[in-house]
Amino acid sequence: MYTQINSNITRYVSFSSSELEIFNSLLTYKEVPKKTMLLQEGEICNFEIFVIKGCVRKYYIDANGFEVILQFAIENAWVSDSSFSIYENKPSRVFIETLEDCEFFVFNPETKEELFAKAPRFERAFRILMQRSLAVTQERLFQTISRSATEKYQEFTAQYPTLSQRVAQHYIASYLGISAEFLSKIRTKMAKK
Amino acid sequence: MYTQINSNITRYVSFSSSELEIFNSLLTYKEVPKKTMLLQEGEICNFEIFVIKGCVRKYYIDANGFEVILQFAIENAWVSDSSFSIYENKPSRVFIETLEDCEFFVFNPETKEELFAKAPRFERAFRILMQRSLAVTQERLFQTISRSATEKYQEFTAQYPTLSQRVAQHYIASYLGISAEFLSKIRTKMAKK
DNA sequence: CTAGGACATTGAACTAGGACAAGAAAAACA
DNA sequence: TGTTTTTCTTGTCCTAGTTCAATGTCCTAG
């Protein structure tokens, strides 16, 4: 049960088995059915989720009421607001919702503090985790600015081959920043070749 | 000399004066003229810079040879590769260049490790710093996807009023992900109203 | 003080992608 | 099983933004 999350957290920092025991003892396991809202805009996000199984999306709603998907999180990925809502006590601007039946491990700020107090080296692991998401987000920003819709879609399917099967197309369109109709046109064009 | 960086680092975590002394003793001061390349694509980024004075840009070069500016860093901001090049030992994909004569404090991985060893609570401060950049980058991704060029430009000038004076327009265009010509057209249209 | 380069502006022609509408297909559900 | 809701496709028209080229402006080095 803990193997997935343990191999994730030890990817860049190694921990002793007693440290991992502390870590595991502080995790809360949760099962959540699909189409469940985990976080609504305006709430304060007080959790960090590790996805054991299933799929989650995190999204904003823009000025015209359109959803913009920022992140899909599938097996072995972390999701949370990751803006500064916890530290500055500001309400979140994002929504987080399950797309499939999910299994999670959940962290909240208190258990995280407890973890850092009992095993300070986790502070480092979480900093590196953060750094990874920053790198990913930055790469995505670059792709979004510099590539055409077709290129972005190809890139997406290459990078997340399973996801493009599991998730409705209009979600993918929203992630890529294009309309669902145009994505459909891209797909038919690609299929013809 | 140290007031800027000290007030930056104590913004979310408070430190004793002895901790700050350790911190300051590990900083390297540097002056660099404008148009200096600090990092080239393909190199491994082994520094983190705090800008005391001046302006720096960080950018990718896309598949067609066009520059895409990811970040401007001015007074009191941090810049580094922030992708994972240090940890995975991969060459960087970004360029970092000064746009004005600059004054910096520089950190490299070794001094940072030394800092964490001598004053472990800095690990936390750097994690929060990381988290802030992630939040900023994510907000920017959202804006990039969901807003028109005009809106993005207005947002930019509102958020960075000094920067839009200090920096050449085609850099701003590159940051916003639009062509320099179109930015010029937006500006003349806005001036007429 | 001047020549060369970088930067900005403007216009004309073009295109990637959006908005809307309507139908087809596929899931979900009872 | 049929029915309802959600998702996907396709076509037509439209616009935001690009590309290319020409001209103008302003630094800055010599």
Automatic annotation (TrEMBL), chains A, B:
Q: Which domain of life is it from?
A: Bacteria
- What organism does this protein naturally occur in? Flavobacterium tiangeerense
| Name of a matching Pfam family | cNMP_binding
Domain Cyclic nucleotide-binding, chain residue ranges per copy: 30-117
- Protein name, please? CRP-like cAMP-binding protein
